[in-house]
């Protein structure tokens, strides 16, 4: 037998659906097939008629009401929202001296063939870079260190170029002086 509500199979003898809890449909009692009436052959004595058995329908079983179970209503828990506190942003501290030292170091390398200009740029770059490194709250110590290194490299390149220029100029001067001296010596003797 099948449940009329959900269509689940209900075993015989069970009065409720185990799936949805609906009452099981009442199954009509099976009726006995009518038996053919056989007329006895007449004999000398008539036998007593056989009683016809009639099956009585089973008494209907009381239907138990379906109990509905309701979940207890739970009150929602209060939601805690953390307050948002705006903190003003701190401006980044940068060191203008460190940046100036870096720029002077770059110019010292680029302009290394101008001796006087390079010495002025090198001296300023050295001073600005040292001040940028010495600042405790300076945010550009890397720029100050790079400026110091570039300033030193610019000074070394300037000295090397100045020496090369002076060396070639001095050699030319010495050669000219020797040739002039030899020319004078030849003319006087």
Average pLDDT figure: 78
Distance between the amino and carboxyl termini: 152 Å
Counting H and I runs of at least 4 residues, what is the number of helices? 3
Q: Tell me the β content.
A: under 5%
What ranges have pLDDT less than 50 throughout 5 or more consecutive residues?
none
Helix/sheet category? mainly alpha
SSE blueprint:
Blueprint: H1 96-110, H2 115-134, H3 141-188
Helix pairs in contact: 1-2, 1-3, 2-3
Compact overview of the structure:
Helix content is 44%, strand content 0%. With 189 residues, the protein is mostly helical.
Quick tags:
mainly alpha; rod-shaped
Task: Describe this structure as you would to a colleague.
There is one protein chain. The protein has three helices and no strands. It has 189 residues and is mainly α. α1 (96-110) runs parallel beside α3 (141-188).
